[in-house]
Each structure stands twice: as C-alpha cells, then as structure tokens.
Amino acid sequence: MYAYVETFGCQANVRDSENIMGMLAEMGYQITSDQSVADIILFNTCCIREKAEQKVFSRLGALRALKQRKPDLIIGICGCMAQQEGMAALLRRKAGHVDLLMGTQRLSRLPELIAQIRLSGTFQTDTSETGAPPEENLPSLRRSPYKALVNITYGCDNYCTYCVVPYVRGRERSRNMDAVLEELRALSRTGIREVTLLGQNVNTYGRDLDPSSSFHALIQAADRIPGLRRVRYLTSHPRDFSRQIIDAIKETQHVCRHFHLPVQSGSDRVLEMMNRGYTRDYYLALVEYIRRVFPQATVTTDFIVGFPGETDEDFRDTLSLVKEVGFSSAFTFMYSPRKGTPAASMENQIPLAARKERLALLMRAQEEASLAHHTRLKDRVVEVLADEISGGDGAPCMLSGKTEGNHSVVFSGEPSMLGEFVPVRITEPQTWILKGEAVC
Ligand code: 5AD
Ligand code: SF4
Questions:
Q1: Nearest 5°: phi and psi at 308?
Q2: pTM given for the model
Q3: Using CA atoms, how far apart are residues 345 and 339, in angstroms rounded to an integer?
Q4: Could you tell which of 241, 302, 332 is best to mutate to test the pocket of ligand 1, judged by most ligand atoms within 8 Å of the CB?
Q5: I need a labelling partner for 53 at 20 to 30 A (CA). Which of 224, 271, 339, 428 fits?
C-alpha cells in the first residue's frame, strides 16, 4: 500500500506532514512520490492566500479521472483549508471525489478516519477545535537527518486584520517546555545538528502555560543541549521581540544571529490598519538595537503590498524602508483578501493591477538590496551546514546548504561533507544564492 502526501504552505505544515507520514508508515503504508501508484493521496493545505487554495482545487480536479479508474483510492484534504468554515459543503459541490477532510487540531485521529473510510466507503471528517494542549508523541517521518523542525506553539492570538491563521489554527497554545527540551535532546542523540523552533509568534511562547514560561528561557535552555550546533526559530513578531530576548541571545552560543522580523509595511497608517501593534520608528529602533548587539546579524522580513487603503505615499514608505534597513532577503506578497477577516470587508480595496505593479516595484527594490548585501560576502569564508547534493554524484560534486544567517549557498565539495559544517569561500554572490567552494 502506497501513500502520497503533498504539503502546501509554511513550515508548520511541513512539520504536520512529517507526523502524517509517520502515522501512515505505522499503518503499513509506504510513502511514494508517484501519485499514480498511491492508495491514498493527502494534500496538507494552506489558505493564507487565495493562490494557495486555487492550487489545491486544481490538483483535486486533476485527480477526478484517477479516482474513477481506482474507486478504492482515498483522497484527503488536511491542514488549514480543511479548517475553514463551510469547507465540507464546498467540497461536496466542487470535489465530490474527496473522501476525507481533517482539521489541524486532531492529527492523531487520522488512522481511525482512514480505517472508517476503508470499512464503510463513506466520507469522513473531523475538524473539531479542541483548544486542548497540543498532542504529544505522534509518530514522525522526518525529512532530514541533520535538521529538524520542532513545534513550540500552535495557533495565533494576534488577529492581524488581513490574516486567516487565527481562525484556522485556533488560539495560541504553547507546548510544555520539558516536552520541547526532551524532543530536542532526543533529536540531538540521532545526529540532528540544527533545529528550528516553530510557532506563529514564537516570542510569546509560554505566556499561556501554568506556571508561565518564556521564549528567552526556552532558547537559553535549548542552547545548552549537547550536540545542537544551531538553534533557529520561526516566526517572530516585531512587537514581541523584546530587548530581553535580544540580550538573552547574546548569552547563547548556538542561537543563530539571523533575525526574521516580518514588518509587512513601512507606513504607520497601514501598520495601524493591519493591527500590527508597532510603528515604523519602533521597528527601525529594534533593528538598530539588534545590529548594535550583533554587528554581523542578518535581518530578513515579509511584506504585504496593496493592503486596503494603501496609498502611493504609503507604498513609498515601504519602498524606502527596504533601503533604510537593508534586508538581506524578503518574502514579498500581494495582499489577498481572506473571507472572514476584517480587512476583507474594508473599503478601498486596491485593484489587482495596482497591487501587481506595487509588488513588481517592491521585488525589484529588494532584489537590488539582496544583491548588494550578498556582494559584501564575496571572498569571505562562511560556515555552511551541507544538507543536500544539488548536482553530480561523484567527487567533486555540488552541495547546498545554509549559513547561520540563512543565506542559501551552493558550493563544490565532496559527498562526504553531507551533514557537516563546511567552511566555504564565496566566489560568486548572486541575488538569491551565494556560490562558492569548500575550503579544505
Ligand atoms: N495576503 C497576503 N499575504 C499575507 N500574509 C498573511 N496573510 C496574508 C494575506 N491575506 C503574509 C504575511 C505573513 C506571511 C506568512 O504571509 O506577510 O508574514
Ligand atoms: Fe497571521 Fe499576524 Fe498571527 Fe502572523 S501574527 S499568523 S500574520 S495573525
């Protein structure tokens, strides 16, 4: 029996898919990358922007014929789209060949739901919101032997006005700190060298626990786990990224000096409408403090352009922020109205053409900034965790990996370097990646 699992969206979904695949493997399925041989096909979906949803519906459409040929094939939707209101009814209308709809909060029910479909041949769903503490100790098929994703919080309480996440992932719930640290220790024992602590807003980790705990305490404890060489975390919220956290990072050896701080907009008016809880000046002061403490820090961000009511002047403020901060890279998104969020019913929605134009301008500005930042690394030696062979299988071959600052590096080296921290001299900095060669 074969199972095909495709993941859309963010790292939280990537991690959930590892659990989903773990459970499928325990049920006796072999994981395949070939849909045509699969007995079960699961899409772990994302609904943060409309495009992500459209992709899933078009993938589902393409499966209609396969399902006709193989009536026993189970097709399932899990993840954030599954959790949206009215999804079961929508699927009945648009994709009647789907057998399973499973929400984000009860992953552990997957084996039971699959068994019921096998038994009864009827549609099964569980999108209940438990609000309970996160499920622990689910089986897991991890992607990499060197790097691992580790959940620390689930859900989000921030209610940025454009964002659907709080509605589909529920209230913020932190994992118990001992459970997190135990998982980190176990991972380290299996050879994992880099971990990424995951949450929608990791900086508020522990506030909901009794007794309460904190993000800075967690990273300091993670830093002391033997064998872990890099501790990363995703995602931060600038409002909650306190000086206390920055000062705590300074005391650590292994917490990466990479600061991903999604700013979303450079205009105070837009930030206010987005309910982000900070101003442009606050953000600039935060970055300045980080750079004072860590002169070598890399700072990256996310932007949304074309938020309702965004004027040309507001957009110019975003463009100027790109120059002022000098982000080493940024994810740039066009605002996508999400049903049920406050921004979707705001007046002055920006026409698609204008949103596209702003996105193109912003991308161009950021590409220039990225290249300028990368060019400064030419001839420097950086340390790369080599985690993939990206070309040639003999020696020498091309490997790829990331620096502490999260730069992607492609370099010539030996296959034996996989899983090692390799010193690499940067020979050819480009906009998206750095090219280089291993220094022996
Ligand atoms: N439209 C466009 N981008 C969005 N993001 C979140 N919601 C939306 C939306 N409705 C972006 C934000 C966030 C990133 C994960 O996705 O920039 O930081
Ligand atoms: Fe969405 Fe804001 Fe929560 Fe991030 S912090 S998931 S953008 S509501």
A1: -50, 130
A2: 0.96
A3: 8
A4: 302
A5: 271
For 120, half-sphere exposure in the C-beta direction (CA atoms, 13 angstrom radius) is 11
pLDDT at 111 over 80: yes
Q: Which CATH architecture has domain 381-438?
A: Beta Barrel (2.40)
Average pLDDT estimate for 101-116: 94
Instruction: Count how many Cα atoms sit within 13 Å of the Cα of residue 184 in the half-sphere of its side chain.
Output: 30
Looking at the CA of residue 262, tell me the nearest atom of ligand 1: 18
Cα 298 to Cα 305: distance, rounded to the nearest angstrom: 23
**CA angle 139–140–141, rounded 5-degree value:** 140
Tell me if the domain spanning 269-278+286-376 has CATH number 1.10.3720.10. no
Architecture of domain 2-126: 3-Layer(aba) Sandwich (3.40)
Residue written as token pair 């309910």: 275
Which residue puts its alpha carbon closest to atom 5 of ligand 2? Answer: 158
The domain ranges of the chain are 2-126, 144-256, 269-278+286-376, 381-438
- For 258, 395, 406, the CA distances from 422, given in Å and listed in that order, are 18, 16, 14
The closest-lying atom of ligand 1 relative to the alpha carbon of residue 10 is: 15
CA 214 to ligand 2 center in whole angstroms: 19
Class of domain 144-256: alpha beta
Query: If you write DSSP's letter for every residue of 349-418 in order, what string do you get?
Result: PPPHHHHHHHHHHHHHHHHHHHHHHHHTTTT-EEEEEEEEEEE-SSSSEEEEEE-TT--EEEEEE-GGGT
* C-alpha to C-alpha distance for 439 and 429, rounded to whole angstroms: 16
Task: Judge residue 243's burial from the number of C-beta atoms within 10 Å of its C-beta, 0-12 exposed, 13-18 middle, 19 or more buried.
Answer: exposed
Coil/strand/helix, residue 328: coil
Percent of the chain residues topping a pLDDT of 70: 100
Tokens of 39: 């007995």
For 239, the 3-state DSSP assignment is: helix
**Residue among 211, 112, 200 nearest 158 (CA):** 200
The domains spanning 144-256 and 269-278+286-376 adopt the same CATH topology: yes
How confident is the model over 218-245, as a mean pLDDT? Answer: 98
pLDDT of residue 395: 77
Mean predicted lDDT score pLDDT of the chain: 96
Give the per-residue pLDDT at 437: 96
What's the pLDDT tens digit per position in 320-369?
Answer: 999 999 999 999 999 999 999 999 999 999 999 999 999 999 999 999 99
SS3 224: coil
